[in-house]
């Protein structure tokens, strides 16, 4: 059964994903990401296998670890109602999300200036982005969503579920 916290986490993840998707769409619409073009040129015929391992599988593994706290937050059956901890988590998420929105705006403006071609943004909220990589600020909301989870409760619930499943029914 989904709890209010489960719904809250789903809403926060959806907001974050919509922002990131919009940012990437505006950045790359109609053109290939130059990082992949450079990767293809430097790896030649081995590009397919190298990109499979270093881009897709690596990102999948990282995503799995990053998403573990989400599983905890969504799977936990308690608390039955939102708490002050949830409020603090939403506040921290909002601050991190605000940093991301402002950072996206600053990066878009920086890249829009022809005089900045080939330069790295080294001022503002988004600094030191080598080659246009996503900034470390993308991690902030995920850390705050992880804050909303409580792994000890999930571990206890999973142990109770396993014990109940392994106990033969009483006749």
Summarize the SSE layout with pairings.
Blueprint: H1 4-28, H2 34-43, H3 47-75, H4 84-112, H5 139-147, H6 151-166
Helix pairs in contact: 1-3, 1-4, 2-3, 3-5, 4-5
Please sum up the structure shown.
This protein has 171 residues and is mostly helical. It is built from six helices and no strands.
Question: What characteristics describe this protein?
Answer:
flat; mainly alpha; 171 residues
Please bin the fraction of helical residues. 55-70%
The average pLDDT score comes to 76
Structural class: mainly alpha
- How far do the termini sit from each other? 28 Å
The geometry reads as flat
CA radius of gyration is 21 Å
Largest beta-sheet details: none
Sheet-strand content, in percent, reads under 5%
- Give the H and E element order: HHHHHH
Query: How many DSSP helices?
Result: 6
Count of β-strands: 0
Sequence stretches where pLDDT stays below 50 over 5 or more residues:
128-137
Structural description of this entry:
- With 171 residues, the chain is mainly α.
- It is flat.
- Mean pLDDT is 76; it is low at 128-137.
- The longest helix is centred in the middle third of the chain and has 29 residues, at 47-75.
- The protein contains 6 helices and no strands.
């Amino acid at each position: 059964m989904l709890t209010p916290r489960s719904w809250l986490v789903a809403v926060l993840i959806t907001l974050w994903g919509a922002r990131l998707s919009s940012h990437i769409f505006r950045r790359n619409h109609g053109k290939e990401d130059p990082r992949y073009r450079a990767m293809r040129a430097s790896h030649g015929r081995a590009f397919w296998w190298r990109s499979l391992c270093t881009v897709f599988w690596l990102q999948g593994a990282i995503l799995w670890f990053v998403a573990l706290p989400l599983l905890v937050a969504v799977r936990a059956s308690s608390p039955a109602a939102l708490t002050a901890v949830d409020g603090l988590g939403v506040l921290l998420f909002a601050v991190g999300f605000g940093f991301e929105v402002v950072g996206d705006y600053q990066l878009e403006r920086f890249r829009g200036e022809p005089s900045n071609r080939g330069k790295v943004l080294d001022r503002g909220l988004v600094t030191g982005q080598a080659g246009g990589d996503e900034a470390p600020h993308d991690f902030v909301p995920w850390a705050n969503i992880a804050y909303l989870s409580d792994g000890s409760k999930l571990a206890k619930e999973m142990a109770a579920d396993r014990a109940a499943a392994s106990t033969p029914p009483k006749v």
